[in-house]
Amino acid sequence: MRSALLTGINEIAIHETPAPVLKGPGEVLLQVEAVGVCGSDVHYYRCGGIGAMRVEYPFALGHECAGLVVETGSEARHLRPGQRVAIDPLVACGQCDQCRAGRPHTCRNQRFLGCPGQLPGALAEYLVMPAECCYPVPDSMTPAQTVMVEPFSIALHAQRLARPAPGAGIAVLGSGPIGLCVLLALRAAGDCSIYATDLVQDRLDAARRLGARWAGNPRSTNVVAAIAELEPNGVDLVFECAGEQETLDQGVELLKPGGAMLILGIPEVERVSFDVHALRRKEAWIGNVRRQNHCMAAAIDLIARGVVKVDPLVTHHFPLAETAAAFEMVAGYRDGVVKAIVDL
């Protein structure tokens, strides 16, 4: 089968690789329909790793994916050949303390698609996954919508963690795919005032179209001062979706006393810092969002029913042979890209 492999920093090539086969009764063989290019994939592409996880070349990236069931093991009873599925890229052990506590997203023995040292990614024609990672989608959902289930489920998990009160003031710092998914999850959950930031004008325009009350670029606007004019007491919540020291600092400034900042962005650096005295004086809370937790089915339902419209986030499509061009575009923020999808 053909696979798109990361072969070096900023280098991707198409190779012939062995097709996977079922090895256990609970596994499913999938034909990959489409794969989204995620910001974490771009970290591996640009830097060769995230934190301690370093790529050993060649390596297949990709974890946001839609698949078609080809073959099932004897215990995969809820699936049948020809069925289309959204794929949870996390394979949990089901046995550790975290799994037993209902937290498979922090499983101590987890394996994740496209994560070095764990599982090869989905940028290949075929993929084998455990049946419990495969969620059937209705025929009305397109492959692109199915790909967006995974990033939207992360935003849905973040929204459920935060549980904003009706009418809350909320800043979304970083309006890439995850930030915009957070905006969609917040708007679907209830009435709130959302203030969005980004360095790319096309993404600010998208945030406004999707319901942000205000959107601004910190390179041309003092975003903290501008949001403070609209929320003079500070915002209730900040969703940091850029993974940058600048946005973390802005988040601390923007919070009202007793407010909370949830960090979804993945920094490229090993360490970040906070103004601890500002946090202490405000008794502000900082939390991290780790993937998604039991949100795939709910994400499918919201997208399938049209409550959440993810189509505006999908801006570019590439065939497998042009995977390198897709990564180059996303890494360079070119051509107004929000979400690029590789169609297989």
Percentage of residues in strands: 25-35%
* CATH fold descriptor of the largest domain: Quinone Oxidoreductase, Chain A, domain 1
Mean model confidence by pLDDT: 97
Number of domains: 2
Number of strands: 20
Q: Mind telling me the CATH class of the largest domain?
A: Alpha Beta
Q: Tell me about the largest β-sheet.
A: 7 strands, mixed
Structural class: alpha/beta
Q: Helix count, per DSSP?
A: 10
| Uncertain residue segments | none
CATH architecture designation of the largest domain: Alpha-Beta Complex
Binned, the helix content reads 25-40%
Fourth-tier CATH superfamily name of the largest domain: Medium-chain alcohol dehydrogenases, catalytic domain
Spatial shape: globular
Rounded to an integer in angstroms, the radius of gyration calculated over CA atoms is 20 Å
N-to-C order of helices and strands = EEEHEEEEEEHEEEHEHEHEHEHEHEHEHE
Describe this structure in words.
The chain is 28% helix and 29% strand. The protein is α/β, with parallel strands linked by helices. The protein folds into 2 domains: 2-136 and 310-343, Alpha-Beta Complex (Quinone Oxidoreductase, Chain A, domain 1); 152-288, NAD(P)-binding Rossmann-like Domain (Rossmann fold). Strands 3, 7, 8, 11, 12, 19 and 20 form a 7-stranded mixed beta sheet that branches. Strands 15-14-13-16-17-18 form a 6-stranded parallel beta sheet, with helices on both faces. The protein has a 3-stranded antiparallel beta sheet with strand order 2-1-6, with no helix packed on it. Helix 3 (143-162) crosses helix 4 and helix 6 (223-230) packs parallel to helix 7. It is globular, with a radius of gyration of 20 Å.
